Each structure stands twice: as C-alpha cells, then as structure tokens.
Amino acid sequence: MHGPDPDCLYPFNGEPHTVFLKNAITRPNILVGDYTYYHDDDGAAGFEDRCVRYHFDFLGDRLIIGRFTAIATRAQFIMNGANHAMTGLSAYPFNIFGQGWDKGFDFATIDAGLRGDTTVGNDVWIGREATIMPGISIGDGAIIGTCAVVAGDIPPYAIAVGNPARVIRSRFDSKTIDRLLAIAWWDWPAEQVSRHLDLIRGADIDALERAAISRPGARGTSRSHALPD
C-alpha cells in the first residue's frame, strides 16, 4: 500500500466533509498539488465558490497550492478582483454600476494595485477561517493560525497568527529549515513517502536526509518546488 489515491475526491470513505482538493477544482486559474485537502462539514467540494473570492479570469491571477497542504474550514483566499482603484481621491468603484458612471474609467487605475498570483507552498497548515490576501506567498511548512489575516509573505516553516498576521516564531532553526527545504520530501513519489513515513513524521532529520540521498533517482539534496506550473 502506498497511501490513499491522490485522484480520489473523498478520501474518508466517501464522506463529503473532506476532499483531496485538486479533484474538486474546475477553474483553470486554480492549481493544487496531490494530497492537499480541504475540510468543511457543509460540503468540502464547494471550496471554489465558498473559499476563493473575487477571482476573475480577465485579471490573470492564479491561486497555486502545493502538495500535502491542509486547509481548514472556511479559509478565505481573497484574489485580485477585490481590488479598488486607489490612485485618486476616492476608492469607490463607480464604474461597476454603469449607467454613465463607467465613462472615462481607466482600468490602469485598477491594474496598478494588482499583486499577481497567490502561492501556498507544500506541507502548509492553514487554520480555520484564516484569510489570505491577494498576491501573498506562504512558504513550505508554514502554519497559519485560526482567523489570521495574512497580508504579507510568510517564510518557510514560520508560524503566523493574528490580524494582521505576524510571525511569532519559526518551527525550526534556520539550518534545519534549509535542510528540510533541500530534502523536499513532498516531491517524492507516493511509494517513497509511504516507505519513509515514520521519518517524515518523526524528528530525526539526519535519518530523513539519508533517506532522501539514498532514494532511487536522487541526486543529493537540492531545493525543489512541487508547486504546479
């Protein structure tokens, strides 16, 4: 056995409260890696409509989430479509109501505030009702606390809480973080993950590093990203 099927929508015996998220995604501007899951007792397959807000194709921004990431109920990803023009004296969106108010509107005033893709790394844990603002990058192994409002980038293996979210500590020292990022166990094939599961969920990084170097096809430990393209 090499673990659950990553192409299964409902990995808990068909229960609708949890989905392997990539299998519930229909929008081309949302990319999710294997084994990342979303939990919601009201039906986790509704993630796109319930959790991804103001996401419009014409703006070109993407939501990109890596592998083995855990997303709790009602986490919110606010995308660039929520932006208002802030180059003038008023931020009120007159143009969206038409009826003459759209005349003379310059889209460049909106474009100036767009922040690009929102990126969540691998092995990230996002707490219940956390809010991720547009264009944010959350590094591998980070933890985002319940109800946190993330308005700035979060480094790998940091723990961030509050509104606005601030990093209260790192999960490991900087040397250990560098080693974990180099190991990048989330990039391993499912068979390798299953074989070394006790090391991945354990605390012996030396042993995990040896497993990374010795696995078939490994070329030592070099930084790797498993984020979808």
UniProtKB/TrEMBL annotation:
GO terms for biological process? response to antibiotic
What keywords are annotated for this sequence in UniProt?
A: Acyltransferase, Antibiotic resistance, Repeat, Transferase
Alphabetized Gene3D superfamilies for the sequence: Hexapeptide repeat proteins
Asked if Repeat is a keyword of the record, the answer is: yes
Q: What one GO molecular function would you report for this record?
A: acyltransferase activity
The family assignment reads: Belongs to the transferase hexapeptide repeat family.
Query: What name appears for this protein in its UniProt entry?
Result: Virginiamycin A acetyltransferase
**Lineage, uppermost ranks:** Bacteria, Pseudomonadati, Pseudomonadota, Alphaproteobacteria, Hyphomicrobiales
